[in-house]
TrEMBL record:
Its cofactor is Fe cation. It comes from the Bacteria. This is Pirin family protein. Keywords: Iron, Metal-binding. Fe cation binds at H59, H61, H103, E105. Residues 177-298 form the Pirin C-terminal domain. One of its GO terms (molecular function) is metal ion binding. Residues 21-121 form the Pirin N-terminal domain. It comes from Geobacter sulfurreducens (strain ATCC 51573 / DSM 12127 / PCA). Binds 1 Fe cation per subunit. The lineage of its organism: Bacteria, Pseudomonadati, Thermodesulfobacteriota, Desulfuromonadia, Geobacterales. Belongs to the pirin family.
Length: 302
């Protein structure tokens, strides 16, 4: 299989969202449509309760899916369809907002003191923007982990590895979401569907995400104004966006193990009109959504 090469590398940047939650934004607004069908990835990682307890009080979504993956800590959630509960370490919440949902996500005091998790936003195509909302709460025990040769470990939220399929299925953008750990010096190779967008986000360690060892072979954003000594190895809080050509990705761990999230999905190739928590195709659709929210007509399905 021909391995894909890196298109661009980004460094996540600190920002504050919700009622005062400190996060690192791996990619977002300014990168549309590079990551199509993915809109945003936020990394919340802190041991300071004041930086995560304010949470994300009640707010609307329409036209997207939000995917929350918790590594450490607890997040209490509720929504306008009556779903409620708590997700903890290793759990995933996959919510399709569709025609409209109002929800809240409120981190709780962490048993370890650490809060660490991620939220992706995935776009919905125009003909499914107004579909009925749906919600999937996937517990860590229901997420399979496969152990490949040489000690490589892969947790499969969505997609298939070595014939093992993840629990999140029948999603419109045909996504994969993997949590991959590769021992030092070993190589993880994984097929990617033709034309699908492929992205990796490094959690820990360092690795080479294609076969090149030239740090100037691809664009690197956020590395500094005059970084003439930059390295081609990618470390924590780094986003790797792959080129669309190639049938697989190949990741080689450096001198120590590397752990990363891998996501892929089918691009929509549609216009994006985005304001706050609502993503549509036109500004007129955005205007309608916010008018309906203001007038109490936002929720179409209960």
């Amino acid at each position: 299989m021909t391995a894909r090469r890196i298109s661009r590398v980004f460094k996540s940047r600190p920002t504050v969202e919700g009622a005062g939650v400190h996060i690192k934004r791996a990619f977002g607004y300014s990168q549309v449509p590079l990551f199509d069908p993915f809109l945003m990835l936020d990394d919340f990682h802190t041991a300071n309760p004041a930086e995560y307890l304010p949470g994300f009080p009640w707010h609307p979504h329409r036209g997207i899916e939000t995917i929350t993956y918790v590594l450490e800590g607890l997040v209490e959630h509720g929504d306008s369809m009556g779903n409620k509960g708590v997700i903890g370490a290793g759990d995933v919440q996959w919510m399709t907002a569709g025609s409209g949902i109002i929800h809240q996500e409120m981190p709780q005091p962490s048993p370890t003191g650490m809060m660490w998790g991620f939220q992706f936003w995935a776009n919905l195509p125009a003909d499914r923007k107004m579909m009925d909302p749906r919600y999937r709460d996937v517990k860590a025990a229901d997420i399979p982990e496969v152990v490949l040769d040489r000690g490589i470990r892969v947790k499969i939220v969505s997609g298939t590895v070595n014939g093992v399929q993840g629990p999140v299925r029948d999603i419109i953008i045909d996504p994969e979401m993997l949590d991959v750990s590769v021992p030092a010096g070993e190589v993880f190779t994984h097929p990617v569907k033709e034309g699908h967008t492929a992205v990796a986000y490094v959690l820990d360690g360092e690795g080479y995400f294609d076969d090149r060892r030239d740090p100037f072979a691809f664009e690197m954003t956020g590395s500094g104004w005059m970084d003439v000594t930059r390295r081609c190895v990618c470390g924590p809080e780094t986003v790797i966006l792959y080129e669309r050509d190639g049938a697989a990705v190949a990741v080689t761990a450096g001198d120590r193990p590397v752990r990363f999230l891998f996501i892929s999905g089918k691009p929509l190739n549609e216009p994006v009109a985005w304001y706050g928590p609502i993503v549509m195709n036109t500004n007129e659709e955005l205007r309608t959504a916010f008018e309906e929210y203001e007038k109490g007509r936002f929720i179409k399905h209960r």
